[in-house]
TrEMBL record:
It comes from the Bacteria. Residues 32-223 form the Cation efflux protein transmembrane domain. The lineage of its organism: Bacteria, Bacillati, Bacillota, Clostridia, Lachnospirales. This is Cation diffusion facilitator family transporter. GO terms for molecular function: monoatomic cation transmembrane transporter activity. The keyword Transmembrane helix applies. The chain crosses the membrane at residues 28-54, 93-112, 132-151, 172-191, 197-215. Residues 227-303, 314-385 form the Cation efflux protein cytoplasmic domain. It comes from Candidatus Anaerostipes excrementavium.
Length: 389
């Protein structure tokens, strides 16, 4: 069914990096969600009325909330597909993350409302009646929601969409919550125990947990998170395949929405190479990054001394001292400037994030270690880089 719908409504479906194709996927997912959830709401609301079960009625309004969420997702994909303009030079791709966040907040809101109603039902229990039609409706709902979870997850994986993945998570949560409601009805019919309110609380807690996870997945890209390690490795490997490049550092990946990345990095080249030849190579690498990874790339060229024995040995000695101090630290952009009274050893020190890394203490300790362990008048000039990949 998923493949059939995609073939009917998404043209050029394999080109998932194209904004129009992504928008078509989002539109398809949104429309399917709206139609299915409205039908499920109508069926469950009817079942809740004839049985008097608060858990069924709450589950019905959960589906109504999902229909609203699908509308939000639909709008989000529409806006995300708009091209760049004067006010948004990097496009509108992050709107897809925003719509996913709104969907996640809607999940949380519905979870709180369901929890409130269920607690009231425990405090003031009401009689419920068993109806076969309600059981049939709940079973059909579970099957439909399971298909919707698979459908949305399939689209989310195809286009790398957190909004669609959040919707898939919500659909799976609905499967479990509806199954719990169905279980409560069967327990009431066969054993005579009215667990309507208790099951409602359990379902609410499950919905809240799913909403919390969905918020994390959609909020992190908006705040700025570490890039995909595989993407970083692939970019570094591609750059290093060029013979003239002897090192890569200071890579930063900015995410402006799926398929809208801006990458900057420093490429180390021997200081003896022809500058025009090196510049041509850098242009070539930037073009390849655009073609292979659909990202705008800006590469800074760092000339590195490779044929000075003293510089090489000094760098190795300092790296050894730093490894002895903390193996998680590293250096780059190393150079030496010799004066009449002392020699400046200049380098960037890469320090990871974390509470254990006191930057002021690290700099003080390393400077002292260089003075103590290395003979001569060496003075360390250190610039701190924070590890971003």
């Amino acid at each position: 069914m998923t493949k059939l719908l995609i073939s009917l409504f998404v043209k050029n479906s394999g080109n998932v990096t194209d904004a129009k194709v992504r928008s078509a996927y989002g539109t398809l997912g949104g429309m399917v969600g709206i139609i299915c959830n409205l039908l499920l709401f109508a069926g469950k609301f009817f079942a809740g009325i004839i049985t008097g079960a608060i858990s069924i009625t709450a589950d019905a309004f959960n589906n109504l909330s999902d229909a609203a969420s699908s509308i939000i997702t639909l709008i989000g994909f529409y806006i995300a597909g708009k091209p760049a303009d004067e006010d948004h030079p990097f496009g509108h791709g992050r709107m897809e993350y925003v719509s996913g966040l709104i969907v996640s907040l809607a999940i949380l809101l519905m979870g709180f409302e369901l929890l409130k109603s269920s607690i009231e039902k425990i405090i003031h229990p009401e009689n419920i009646t068993f109806q076969i039609i309600s059981v049939v409706i709940l079973i059909v709902s579970i099957l439909v929601k399971f298909w919707m979870a698979v459908f949305n997850k399939s689209i989310g994986n195809r286009i790398q969409s957190e909004a669609m993945n959040a919707t898939a998570t919500d659909s799976l949560n609905d499967c479990i919550s509806t199954a719990a409601v169905l279980g409560g009805m069967l327990i009431f019919y066969f054993l005579g125990y009215n667990l309507d309110g208790v099951i409602g609380v359990l379902v609410a807690c499950f919905v809240l947990w799913g909403g919390y996870g969905a918020i994390k997945d959609t909020l992190n890209p908006l705040l700025g998170e570490l890039p995909d390690p595989q993407l970083v490795d692939n970019i570094e490997d591609m750059v290093m395949r060029h013979d003239m490049v002897i090192g890569v550092h200071d890579m930063i990946v900015h995410d402006y929405g799926p398929g809208r990345r801006i990458v900057s990095l420093h490429a180390e080249v021997p200081y003896t190479v022809d500058i025009m030849e090196a510049h041509d190579m850098i242009d070539h690498i930037e073009m390849r990054l655009m073609q292979e990874y659909q990202c705008e790339a800006t590469i800074h060229m760092d000339p590195v001394v490779t044929d000075d024995e003293e510089t090489t040995k000094t760098k190795e000695k300092i790296q050894t001292l730093i490894d002895q101090y903390d193996k998680t630290l590293s250096i780059h952009d190393f150079r030496m400037v010799t004066g009449k009274t002392h020699t400046n050893v200049i380098f960037d020190l890469v320090v990871p994030y974390g509470k254990k890394y006191d930057v002021k203490k690290i700099l003080k300790d390393i400077r002292q270690k260089i003075r103590e362990e290395m003979p001569g008048q060496y003075f360390a000039v250190i610039k701190v880089d924070r590890k971003t990949i």
